[in-house]
Specification:
Length: 227
């Protein structure tokens, strides 16, 4: 681990390999495959730091979980080009959602092998995920828990993310409706104070809509199953 931010620990290639529990040859192979970022060069000496060590430990953990080197390389590229957490959380207060910090391997564990490069990139693009050094930050514990629960019920993560994008579209429209109502009949200062009322209306209407949907049965599902 780094001693402090002002004076982080650095390693020569053989020292880093020893700390990571791999051979120097393997480390250089990972570097050639761009699985880890370039080291700092000082003359002919390459210096690595704790970020490299964290990445190597993540690679080992993902390999243990059945990921391939090609898949890990694509995940690493998506991670390195992901939006910084400050951009993702830049909506600022007020917010009732609690962000969650995860290591890449902890995220993989949550979703039982469904964290593919495509799904990871989609979550980054939607703003569900941001990167902060060697960590991943999910913007909402509730959304993270629900998404993981749906995946564990057998629903593909890609389908969960696609549906999430559609839900967001409708949620934005509902938020606009409520904001217009308040601004027309009250004041902007009342918007946050009346926020719980908007949530109650939406939760009640969704509950009633699910009642109506369940009462109809599932004709679409029946048609897909018909010979």
């Amino acid at each position: 681990m780094a001693e402090n931010q002002a004076n982080p620990r650095e390693y020569r290639v053989d020292e880093l390999a020893k700390e990571a529990g791999i051979t120097v040859r393997t480390l250089r192979f990972y570097r050639e495959r761009r699985l880890i970022p370039p080291p700092r060069k000082e003359g002919r000496i390459a210096w690595y730091d704790d970020h490299h060590l964290a990445r190597l430990r993540t690679i080992a953990a993902l390999l243990d979980r059945g990921h391939t080197l090609n898949g890990i390389a694509e995940l690493a590229e998506a991670f390195d080009h992901g939006r910084d957490v400050a951009d993702v959380l830049g909506i600022g207060p007020p917010s009732e959602e609690t962000p969650v910090r995860l290591t890449p391997e902890a995220l993989a564990d949550r979703f039982a092998g469904e964290v593919t490069p495509a799904n990871f990139a989609a979550a980054l693009d939607m703003g569900y995920l941001g990167t902060d050094g060697d960590e991943i930050v999910h913007v909402s514990r509730r959304l993270l828990d629900v998404s993981a629960a749906l995946v564990h019920e057998g629903i593909p993560l890609a389908a969960v993310l696609e549906t999430g994008a559609r839900v967001r579209h409708h949620a934005d429209a509902l938020a606009d409706l409520f904001a217009r109502l308040v601004l027309e009949h009250a004041s902007p200062d009342d918007l946050e104070r009346l926020r719980p009322l908007a949530k109650s209306v939406i939760e009640a209407e969704l509950s009633l809509a699910l009642d109506r949907r369940l009462a109809k049965g599932a004709p679409e599902a029946d048609q897909r199953q018909a010979p």
